Amino acid sequence: MNYTFESAEKSTVKLVITFNGDEWKSALDKAYLRTRGKYAVPGFRKGKCPKPVIENYYGKGVFFDDAFNVLYSENYPEIIEKEKESFTAVGAPDLSVDELTDEKIVLTAIVPVKPDVKIGSYKGLEIKKYEYNVTEEEIKTEADKILLREAKTVEVTDRACRKGDTVNIDFAGKVDNELFAGGSMEKYDLELGSGSFIPGFEEQVAGMKIGEEKDIVVRFPSDYQADNLRDKDATFSIKLHSIKGKELPELTDEYVKKYAGCDTVADYMERVKTRLENKAKNDSRDQTENSILQAICQTCECEIPQAMIEGEVDSIVNDFAGRLAYQGLQLKDYIEYMGQTMEQFRAQFNEQARGRVLNQLVIEKIVKDEKITATPEEIEAEIAKQAESVDKTVEEYKKNLDGRRLEYIANDIVITKLFDFLTANNNLVA
Fold this sequence. Notes:
The protein has helices spanning 21-35, 51-58, 64-82, 136-144, 201-205, 253-260, 265-297, 306-326, 331-337, 342-347, 350-369, 376-389, 394-398, 403-424; strands at residues 2-8, 12-20, 94-100, 104-112, 118-119, 126-128, 152-156, 166-175, 178-191, 213-219, 233-247, 300-301, 427-429. The protein is of the alpha+beta class. Strand 3 (94-100) and strand 4 form a beta hairpin.
């Protein structure tokens, strides 16, 4: 067997593999041995009929497809491994037979490969910086959540509904004056402030009274799961049937000792404040890093193979299915309810998947170009830090570290160093 390869269009490599007559004959023999049991020939028991007899009865090419698979499975992975420094395959190849004689067979594989991303610039850009601050009201709202453990649900009849209440409503949504799939429901219980509905919906329901009817207008987000609704204005007709509120107990030292393990309310409030400040800090960092990455991606040129996008769509769909399962729902039932096919459901994630793939390619490119690595000393320091966080010695902690976990630690260090580098080399503005 010998082969040649060359770059082709749309981030593919054309791989031409040539096998001689002996290799082709061997593949045919293997195909015969693997599949002879499924061929019935009068006068012979299944699996006992000689190869020439089967070929005469069913035709000379009876074993060709299986022989092609033999040649492919035994040689293609070896070639891909051998040439991994030249290209990285990212999906199944498109195979064809270019020539077939008794003397040789020539297979052509069009292989989707990881593309080379061309970055216009990743230094000196003006990029939005995100900063989130924690207010006293947010601290109190978060602290009060502990009171829900002993909250009593009460019927509300003497006031309008507000954030935290559960309302029972009918709603019917229209886009371009037409009802859309999944946009209508009767006697639906909605907790205001839960974020269950698109932005603006729950806020406009708040303030309604029992028996009241009104229309509200909201805009679907640009990343909404149904692509036919993205960035569209929708009008929902709402009727409110009932309101249930929560009657909260008093926040006392005894209460926080029981449910939060704190000695005093002051200790508990300080813990909540610290937790929210840490979250705000992490959110600020994550949003800023995403902002940096998006700014860099806008300068890029890259032809991403569909195989990479489909692989990322698989990941998104699996995550979505997992969240549905947590709620006791099946993906196929959800898709049917939304009036979609699986193909339509998957298609709406194409742009999101493409963005994710491009982000990863950009990260890999800059890390490689800037030679950003995790040193053994940095890895050891991170292991020591993690060991201390769970009150173990480094030796004890290392006993549960496998290669995959060590790789994750090293990668996390690299990503941290990468964004430290990008933050230092770009102009971040509030």
